[in-house]
Specification:
With 323 residues, the protein is an alpha/beta fold. The chain has eleven helices and nine strands. Helix 2 packs across helix 11 and helix 4 packs across helix 5.
Length: 323
């Protein structure tokens, strides 16, 4: 029954509450830039992923990092993880999911929580390029869901590629996460996402037929956004509803099938999680999945007082090193 007691002591005293613990590290944390070398990975469907490599001399393995919704390899939490592992003799491969590298992806679709085939392609490419290097993966929020969906939906393939997988602040049940964002302050986060995604949709409309752009300024909830854009862009049938999409991309329904050592860390004060995002059943039935609930940390925060790294970086290194 690998439900772990967390050793996270909490963030600096100035960061009180889940919202501040979410916002402060993502806006004010200063992390040096990473000396990335970019590689374009061509995908079988005609699209591409831009991979940012760093610390090329690392001999202990390759850490693959997946960012959250509307993030990139340059987000502070990705940079911090890259430096923490790179300075400890690991190579780094930070994924920029489709449309997130600074260049729009080719296809009409973009990216979402269920894009585990893209992570599978990255793992296969790295294993072919570096056959003697062990691979591990850490994902944040949406990137966490992508990693968890891979170990849960393609358990044998994931086991062959990755020695360990770690997920922080993952919306294990996307529908329940959406409900947590249906509060007045939750809509503050949502509006930032809709604005960023809307800009990409307008850019994509220069090449592809994207209907309903005139509704973007009126959208006030995720149900409307997903009906207008997420479902049609990702080829759901006309009678599909957002709940169909949410269930498809939520790893909580499949995690009991994972065969890869997997760590899931969720903060109990995360303002973007709720309901089955805090499910424990999969950890009680699967000895390969370890679950850790922290009292504090917010969403992709997990700051620590007096040190330049976060609990996410320290905890990931500890878990990955065990395998």
């Amino acid at each position: 029954m690998p439900i772990l007691q967390s050793k996270y002591s909490g963030p600096p005293l100035a960061q009180q509450g889940g919202h501040l613990q979410t916002i402060w590290p993502n806006i004010f944390r200063s992390v040096p830039s990473v000396a990335y070398r970019r590689e374009r990975l061509e995908l079988d469907d005609g699209d591409f992923l831009d991979l940012d490599h760093s610390y090329p001399t690392g001999s202990k393995g390759i850490l693959v990092i997946g960012h959250g919704l509307e993030g990139s390899a340059d987000r502070p939490y990705v940079r911090g993880m890259a430096h923490y592992f790179g300075e400890r003799d690991w190579q780094i491969c930070a994924i920029n999911f489709r449309s997130c590298s600074g260049e729009m992806n080719r296809l009409r679709r973009m990216y979402h929580h269920g894009d585990y085939p893209d992570l599978l392609a990255v793992g296969q490419h790295l294993k072919q390029t570096f056959p003697n290097q062990a691979l591990a993966y850490v994902g944040f929020s949406m990137g966490g869901n992508i990693g968890l969906n891979l170990v849960a939906r393609k358990p044998w393939a994931a086991e062959e590629l990755f020695k360990a997988v770690v997920a922080f602040s993952s919306p294990l049940s996307l529908g329940d996460s959406i409900k947590s964002l249906e509060t007045p302050i939750g809509r503050v986060y949502s509006r930032r996402f809709w604005k960023a995604l809307g800009e990409k949709l307008h850019a994509k409309a220069e090449v592809h037929d994207i209907e309903g752009l005139e509704t973007l300024s009126k959208i006030g909830d995720w149900d409307a956004f997903d009906r207008a854009f997420s479902l049609p862009l990702h080829d759901y049938p006309a009678d599909a509803v957002p709940e169909d999409f949410y269930r498809d991309v939520s790893p909580v329904h499949h995690l009991e099938k994972a065969r890869t050592p997997t760590l899931v860390v969720q903060a109990l004060n995360d303002p973007m999680l709720g309901g089955r995002c805090y499910d424990t059943a999969f950890a009680k039935t699967n000895d390969m999945v370890f679950l850790e609930h922290t009292k504090q940390g917010g969403h992709v925060g997990f700051d620590l007082p007096g040190v330049p790294w976060t609990y996410a970086e320290k905890r990931t290194f500890e878990f990955v090193s065990d395998f």
